[in-house]
Amino acid sequence: MALIFxxxxxxxxxxxxxxxxxxxxxxxxxxxxxKKNMEDASPTPSLPKNFERAIPPALIINPNExxxxxxxxxxxxxxxxDTMYCxxxxxxxxxxxxxxxxxxxxxxNKVTEGVQKxxxxxxTDVVMYNYFFQKAEHYLYNPNSSMRNxxxxxxxxxxxxxxxxVMDEYKIRPRQLLQLAYRNRPGAKAEDIVYTTxxxxxxxxxxxxxxxxxxxxHNPDCHECKVTTGQLINSVIISSAVTSxxxxxxxxxxxxxxxxxREHLNDLPASWINGYDKTLVIRNNQTYDLKAIPTxxxxxxxxxxxxxxxxxxxxxxFLEQNIR
Length: 324
Prior knowledge:
This protein is an alpha/beta fold.
């Protein structure tokens, strides 16, 4: 009898335990399912609205004034608190590219005003501010960008340095870039250069006399330098200007491997002046901002900078219009 009694008790406990275990898993399963349903039902982040551009008033009919209005009012309808815009390149990055594309069609004062308004508005969020400043550097300063232009990058740098909202540690690079951008600007006197030729003779850029002087910083062993050199040699307008004496070309090698430079002396026309920076002042003191090699400058007879970090195409257009 005692054995049967304990057996019944054990069976009852087992039965009750199984009921509890089944109930437990049912509850857990329902809770997990309910949680999953709640997660599935949670709203996904909404994509930002398309960019709304400013439209100049109909009374403004002058093209330069219309461009100036669009630049200074370009970001009026943009939500700088919505950082989702930083992840929508088809909207925000395209809008920024269109923004800087307007710069050549307006006065420089309007460009500066528009940049100030953009970065001041972007100061509401550090993510947004960094986004726009990085885009400006990418398109206006990066040597691989076809849109690079120090003059249009300067307002971004000036605003970043002057901002009371940007911490000092984040101003170090903008200050450095601004110092480089200020050097040898169009309209300013070019820094003088002391160069040495293959004969060992030393001379100065300021001692050269020419209506126009093309200054080319190059490395004779680099591919892009060879391409640019070929374009200059094969250009009818440039060759004609050199032959007539209206244009002189000064090619400067700013690095220290003189043996390589000597190996390629015959790669340049004999009518060009071919020299190197013996004391490496250009490289060490950054008297010229050589963000990429080759770099071309065009100077007038007074050694005033006409074109800075220019291309062969722009150079040809200038010579066609200004040198006969």
